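Deliverable D5.2: sample structural annotation.
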Amino acid sequence: MEHLAAELRKPYFWAVIAIFFAGVFLYYSRYLPAAAFAPDSLLGLESHSIERIVFLVVIILGGLASGLITGLVYVVLSAAAMLPYIFLPSNFSADAVFEICLVIILGIGFNLWLATHRREVGKREQVLLKLEAIQHEVREHIKTVRESEKRISLLRSVTAAINQFSSLDDILATAVAKVKESVEIDGVLIYLLNNVKNQLELRQYSGVSEEFADDVKYVKGGEDFNGRIVDTGQPLGEDSANRPRLLPAVEKEGIVSQFIVPLTAREKVVGMLCVLSYSPKRFTTEEEQLLSLIGSELGVAVERASLSEEKERAGRRFKELFEKAHDSIWVQDFDGKVLDANQATADYTGYPLDEVIGSYIFQSLDSKGLELAREVRRKMLSGVKVEQPYEQKVIRKDGSEATIMLTTSLIQEEGTPPVFQHIARDVTREKKLAENLRLYAQQITQAYEEERKRIARELHDDSIQALIILSREIDELVSHQPKNGRMIRPLEGIRGEIDDILARIRRFTHDLRPPTLDYLGLIPAVRELVSQLTTQSDITAELYVSGQEKHFTSSEEMLIYRIIQETLRNVGRHSGAKSVQVSIKFESDSTVVEIKDDGKGFEISESMGFVQAGKIGLAGIQERAELLGGKLSISSKVGEGTILTLIIPKERWKK
């Protein structure tokens, strides 16, 4: 109904209706009173043919005006108007049927063709609209691409400019100049973040006054608009109209607009790029994106430059340490050629430094030292752990021998052949002092043992003999007393006390110098010690000997004996043990003495020596072990007993 109402409101609808009724009038005019006025022919056509052409025109105009449906409606109306003519008396009845059918067919055909044509035109119009939309999108895309290319070109120019410098100040100065070329602004500030102080520090600026630069030289993290960039890590823009609070320096400088982006590297803020204008300026999206990209590139460049500067500073510090180190440091290649060395190397070898560098290290080694160097190199190249530092002997320029404690490292860097780095300390003087101290301690120990031996001999030859004579004299006095004399009991008491004194002195002289050790050797003397501990205490002591017995010099056997004696004495006095096992193992390359008890144990800090811990007896044991050239270890925990292990190298065996 709405469509019909719309059609009724169109002027050409009524025009077509008027033509239709005019055609009906003409078609039947000969049967009307006015037929005498109707022409019989027009333009060579009979009047009935012209009338049917009028109906065809109505059908065509209706289809053109309102579409297929309306055109078909006019076909039906025209057919309805023409069909009665067939049944009226006429000389043209046969022609009427043909012409009516022809009008209907032509009308239907034209409307169908017109509808098809309109659909094709509609499709073409839709295609054209789509093409126009695509063209618009392409134009927009091309515009975006060109803008992106422009930003990329500007970014590349900035990146190329800042990457050609390694100095941080040069990079920042170049970045300031390039930013001013890329964006229409009045001034640029570049801050770098000081993580220690949590503040931004102005490192480069342009387009602002010196007074303003001094006022904003430092910005605390989170302070005002600029400082908040550090916390958020996001670009921010502002102008004087929308800022709730201005730094006095900013307001005084007359800055109206600014845009700030963080300098980022590895997702961390390392600084801030601030561009500003003294007049109102709205930064476009393209400018903001470009500044953000510049901030990212500049952040990476700043970090790279900072790392480079730190590397240079570290290199200078290392070089200074290398050159001024008291320890000798040198680097050599696989062939033993010295590539670099410090002054300490020249000092201990006696050669000038320029002669040391370029020389071959094997020239200062004897055959044994050269073999050791080759063994260390072989182990390092094979990945075998080398016990370090190790001792090495070198020949100085004057022919004297120096002893060094050497630490070797294999340095492998990509793109360069591996080299060996050596750190050595000249311990020649220390070794001599240590040897002198060892000899001194050995002589003191020998003198100590000799004095003990002398005291024991004097006690045996003097005191014990005198007491024996006194005891016999008392026996003589007792024998001459009457059987019930008053003096018999006191004299017998004195004699008993003398016997006790004799037993104590004999035990004391035995401790001073065990005769078993002098006459029978180490194993019988130790067995006697173990037996005495069992006899004189409630501790069960056992001795185990394994392997083929080896012998030591008398002084070394005395040292071993004293170590075992002092250990068993500590067990008897302090451990609270119920049993103790002493084992002596003669192995192929060493002699191992182990003393194990089940006592209460003790704790001692590894960082403290026995003397500092108040373990004087253990300090004496350790000193004797060092004189033997042996390795002493003590393992003890509270409630778990104690194990003392002494390993004596085979070089101490008596040949």
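Annotation notes: The chain is about 55% helix and 20% strand. The longest strand covers residues 401-411.
The annotation will be released with the project's public dataset once the embargo ends.
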